[in-house]
Specification:
With 322 residues, the protein is α+β, with helices and mostly antiparallel strands. The chain is 50% helix and 22% strand. It contains nine helices and eleven strands. The chain has a six-stranded antiparallel sheet. A three-stranded antiparallel sheet has the order 8-9-11. A hairpin with a 3-residue loop joins strand 5 and strand 6. The longest helix has 37 residues.
Length: 322
């Protein structure tokens, strides 16, 4: 179940998803930030047209670029935060069912652009202060500020590169969820979750980042590492350990519907084994995931014999946990 299978998400995603539609105030802020950057440069240039101020041309250019990046971040963050899968892509596999993730979900590009803008602004100001300084006393003060801006710029640049590497990994492995009679497996970027239904102890909450990444948190009791990096094999413990793992749900399906499916499966492992071995398992899973809301998804699961389950507690708990 935990073997790394070849990803078949290189094809065009056949599901249906939508990005967030920015509100009017988001558009206003996205336009306002570049306007403020250009306005500041114009004001500074109008004071000293010779460009002999403490902020020469390179400083002006870096500030305009940074303000444009902040505007782009505002717009892209709103689109990412509102990403939603309307109709998931579900495939029947020999081991069970594969719910394909939408690789177009990109919660990283906005943060990368913002950090690149901050890096350019910091490095540009450091260069401008160095070039614009004159006199020994003045140079010693500006040198201190230049070093500080340069250090901040390097930090932002390193963060941008780190996020770019993480984004590349998540585009290769966008979070397909494999559902089998034994359990669940997901690889999102360089992180792998692989756990048996019987080892899942229960749901422990949910969180959503400002860029729309929905994280479903669960506890498991297992003698084997259930949440680990793809760079190494899962660790085997000498005894049973309580572990917490997270699943990224919104690139895959409606978060409430797939949470309802996972909750029902871990509450009823025998039902999960029957579901993911049935000849029409892909169709049955698709019917659950396309139900409108958590309660309807659980009702659909009940229709396939999941048994008694307190849908009100499960669904309300998820909504309160976000």
């Amino acid at each position: 179940m935990c073997d790394d299978r070849a990803q078949d998400n290189v094809h065009n995603y056949s599901g249906t998803s939508v990005s967030g539609k920015p509100e009017w105030y988001v558009w206003f802020l996205a336009i306002l930030w570049p306007f403020l950057g250009v306005g500041f440069v114009w004001l500074d240039w109008s004071v000293d047209r010779s460009f002999s101020s403490t902020i020469p041309f390179i400083g002006h250019a870096s500030l305009v670029f940074a303000s444009a990046c902040v505007g782009a971040y505002t717009l892209l963050a709103a689109r990412s935060a509102g990403h939603q899968v309307i109709f998931p892509e579900v495939k029947q596999k020999p081991y069970g069912v594969l719910v394909v993730a939408d690789s177009r979900f990109d919660p990283f590009i906005a943060s990368i652009i913002l950090r690149m803008g901050c890096a350019v602004a910091s490095l540009g100001l450091a260069t401008a202060l160095t070039l614009g300084s004159s006199g020994s006393d003045r140079r010693s003060v500006t040198l201190a500020f230049s070093v500080a801006f340069f250090a901040v710029g390097i930090i932002f640049l390193v963060q941008a590169v780190r996020l770019w590497i993480l984004r590349h990994a998540c585009q290769q492995y966008p979070g397909d969820i494999e559902l089998s009679p034994e359990g669940i497996r997901q690889r999102y970027g360089n992180c792998i979750v692989c756990v048996s239904w019987r080892n899942i102890e229960g749901w422990r909450g949910a969180s959503e980042t400002s860029l729309g990444e929905f994280r479903d948190l669960w506890d498991a009791l297992s003698g084997r590492e259930v949440y680990y990096s793809a760079s190494h094999e899962p660790q085997v413990f000498s005894s049973i350990h309580r572990q917490r793992f997270k699943l990224i749900l919104n690139p895959v399906s409606d978060v409430y519907a797939i949470h309802a499916l996972l909750d029902a499966a871990q509450e009823n492992p025998d039902w999960a084994r029957e579901l993911f071995r049935s000849h029409d398992r892909a169709e049955r899973v698709l019917n659950i995931l396309t139900a409108s809301g958590c309660e309807d998804a659980l009702y659909e699961a009940h229709s396939w014999g999941v048994g008694e389950y307190d849908s009100e507690d499960g669904c309300n708990g998820l909504r309160e946990g976000v």
